[in-house]
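JOB MANIFEST
job_type = single_chain_structure
chain_count = 1
residues = 275
[input]
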Amino acid sequence: LYSTKDLALARLKFEKFQIDRSIYVVDVRQSDHFRHVFLTLKKMGFGQAERCQHVGYEMVELPEGPMSGRKGTVILFRALREAMTSHVVDNYLAKFRGEWSDAEIDDTARMVALGAIKYGMLARDVQQKIVFDMSAWLDLEGNTGPYLQYTHARATSILRKCAEVDKELDPALLEDPAAARAATAALVEPQERELVLLLDQRWPVAHQAAQSLRPSVLCTYLYNLAKAFNRFNQACPVKPSEGALLQARLLLVRATIGALAQGLDLLGIPAPDRM
């Protein structure tokens, strides 16, 4: 009887909503169940059954082992979100009280907590167990959602600080792709070239992640992009630059902001402008 609910739901999706592909993201322990559901749908005459797919993921565990209701180690989402939001405020954002409004601090904390949770889940391949560790997932220096969000905020801050001293990107470079490509000729440092090459890979990587149903591919790319940007920022300061080099570096920062924001958005993660 368990499978009848999935059969009825599939029939509703096929007949009422006319979907042509259905992806079930469910615990890997349900693999046999969905294999039988798809076979039954095929025998019922639904051609869409050929395009039904079960993406099974491993269990989420704590560092000390699996969660257990009997042992009282199950973590509820609401409590988790509140604990992580409080951690972000206390450890990262409290210093901005008086400078930021309470609403901005609270909104940013929620965005960072959400980014930590989503990235922590999506960055692991579906075939790997997910070990939840709040401190590790909220680290601003590791392979985490907050690290990517912080890098986005840092890049945005660079443009903001440059604008304060009248160093802004020429709008013509945004309107003319050929001019933008020509401007990159001024980028000769290894850290600059590394970042340019990584930026050129973003759409092929996003397509690969979508086709393979593996968001971890996109997560790995964004992490590498963030690391490359921070190396660039350390080795090639933008604000002191002048002339063609300034414009090229501003363009590179602008492109990185766009790539990080778009990539995070594909993962359902917000990209705060300040952190």
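[summary]
Residues 176 and 182 are 10 Å apart (CA to CA).
The chain has a mean pLDDT of 94.
exit_status = 0
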